[in-house]
Amino acid sequence: MTTAYVIVTVFGAFMAAFSAASIFFRAKWVVQPLADYGVPRGWWNPLGVAKAAGALGLIAGLWVPALGVAAGIGLVLYFAGAVITVLRAHWASHVAFPLMYMAPVAASLVLGFAA
């Protein structure tokens, strides 16, 4: 396991956990865009749980690589779905936000396979 892999994985997990906490605590700068994109309010907690589970899975993957891979793939798919949601809502200027969260997770997967 390389140092870069550990650092990027921990950072990706932090980003996913921060995003989950932002939903759980109903940070206006997160939930207002969700409402604008048309994401039903009933989905917010399950979406936060998915991100929190992904963050925990990335950390667990440092010891059990299969969990990290599964969590990484799940988070990449989650954030790809977020990109699609943003584009379908015609808010192209907001696409950078889910990509910003996806990037360290994708990098973690790449580094994990390379290690």
Low-confidence stretches: none
Instruction: Summarize the biggest pleated sheet.
Output: none
Average pLDDT across residues? 96
Helix content: over 70%
InterPro entries: DoxX (IPR032808)
Subcellular location: Membrane
Membrane topology: Multi-pass membrane protein
Protein name: DoxX family protein
Could you give the topology of this structure?
Blueprint: H1 3-24, H2 28-37, H3 44-60, H4 65-88, H5 96-114
Protein name: DoxX family protein
Membrane topology: Multi-pass membrane protein
Organism: Amycolatopsis speibonae
Walk me through the structure:
The protein is mainly alpha-helical. It has helices at residues 3-24, 28-37, 44-60, 65-88, 96-114.
In short:
This protein has helices spanning 3-24, 28-37, 44-60, 65-88, 96-114. With 115 residues, it is mainly α. Keywords: Membrane, Transmembrane, Transmembrane helix.
Short key terms for the protein model shown above:
115 residues, mainly alpha, single chain, 5 helices
